[in-house]
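Pasting two entries for a bug report.
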Amino acid sequence: MDAKNEKAKLRAAIVERLSAMQDDDRRSESRSICRRILQELPESPGLLFAYSPLKSEPDIRPALNELLKKGWRIALPALEDGNIVFRGVENLDDLVPGPSGALEPSSFAPVHPSTGSGQASTPVASRESPVVALIPGRAFDRKLHRLGRGNGGFDRWISQHRTVSPETKYWAVAFECQLVNEVPTESHDEKMDVVITARGIATGD
């Protein structure tokens, strides 16, 4: 079986696992994941790329709200011409439904990785403001491979962003049932730096 077929088979299996999760388990694992995110991030506020969760993804909104209170700059994905761009957000209540069904910012300029604003034209990472990106997905393994939903949006964004911001760290966020022994991969697939679940953090070591 080739990688594309293996990926489709694994996606279907993960959808079944996620559908079988009880709401209490989703909430419990999401709370634990939020605690881990807050513990692992630097003390001083910086720029965080994150995501607005679908029901099938860990709910990281409590962590994002806490970080906004602490002065962090938060950017969330939006779809533009089929591609992912990240826009700054100051209040999660301001999000609107996007084409994918996820809530997304509607009126902020794309965020520059060094300043957290949409005004700068040259995307260069800032050493004074470390950047972390929280990345959802369908499945992950302990070697830090990621399986997305199949449209390649996050892989394209990560590949481009690694070029302009090589210091950015990519933290996968997942429910326990999304961890598998091996994720089938292709040449365009981007690896994570860590995988965060309710039970721990995989670093690929």
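Entry 2 (this is the one that rendered wrong in the viewer):
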Amino acid sequence: MRTDESIPITIDQWIAQARDNGEALRFLLQNYHPSNRQPGPRKNQDYITAPNAERACAAIRSRIRADFQGNAVEKFNHALESKDWRTINSLLNDAWFGVPESVTAWGIRGFREAVALIEEPPDEGQSLEAI
């Protein structure tokens, strides 16, 4: 995590952050990306604290599941290798919708790391070589 919020993050820094948190992000994608998650709550795992938001997310999950082709973890690995931050960001956004609408979401492995990346996209005009 960066401490100086006044300097925009570069694509290289964003990718490095994704790489550094790769195992946790892979866990999130494997367990919560809508292509891997079956419809409905999972017994004893999804304690829903925002039922209306959960219903909205369930509809979005269904659309993601219908439109998504391939394996989310494999796509993540390929995008990480090719420094395709947009694909990684899209995968993490999809996984965010797969996470139950609950205060317990912050305890899910990889969720906090995914949110940090989603909330701070890189400045496409900069690279580490330019700094």
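Dev reply: Rendering is fixed now. As a check, the viewer should reflect this: Helices lie at 11-20, 22-32, 51-67, 72-81, 85-98, 111-119.
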